Amino acid sequence: MLSNLLIGLPVMLLCLLLQAVFVAICLRYYVRFKHVRQGRESLGQDILLLSVVMVLMLLGNFVQMAIWAVLFMLLGEFGDFATALYHSGVNFATLGYGDIVMSEARRLLGPLEAANGILMFGVSTAVMTAAVLDVIKRNPAKLRQDEGP
């Protein structure tokens, strides 16, 4: 058990740092786009902006799943990357299908990845919520106009 913690915790820290990088990239893109388009926002631009933020956050989560999959491969748990990535995705998203399991010696890594994943999806949700709230805050008059009579 201790060896799994010593292996899993550094990977979790790496994922936390990676998520911070993706959040920073999203925020920089968001602020830059918002500054350039200030006063000229349109529905299409808002959709584009929110879509880019969403895709970047999902990409960050997918990269983290791939990192866990590589770890599983390095530990000899899976013979091919596709299976390791599938198992990683199931863990990261906390689905817990159980159709593919790791060896008894490494099973604790699954819950560690699940804890990591749920935290990272929470961060991604927070970033998306902040972006949506900012779009709503910037466009109250436009939103009322779009509602119609």
UniProtKB/TrEMBL annotation:
| Start and end residues of each Potassium channel domain | 67-132
Residues crossing the lipid bilayer are 6-27, 47-75, 117-136
Query: Coiled coil: which residue ranges?
Result: none
What are the record keywords, sorted? Ion channel, Ion transport, Membrane, Transmembrane, Transmembrane helix, Transport
User: Which InterPro entries does the annotation name?
Assistant: K_chnl_dom
Q: Name one GO biological process term.
A: monoatomic ion transmembrane transport
Going by the entry's taxonomy, the superkingdom of the source organism is recorded as Bacteria
Q: What is this protein called?
A: Predicted membrane protein
**In which organism is this protein found?**
Cupriavidus necator (strain ATCC 17699 / DSM 428 / KCTC 22496 / NCIMB 10442 / H16 / Stanier 337)
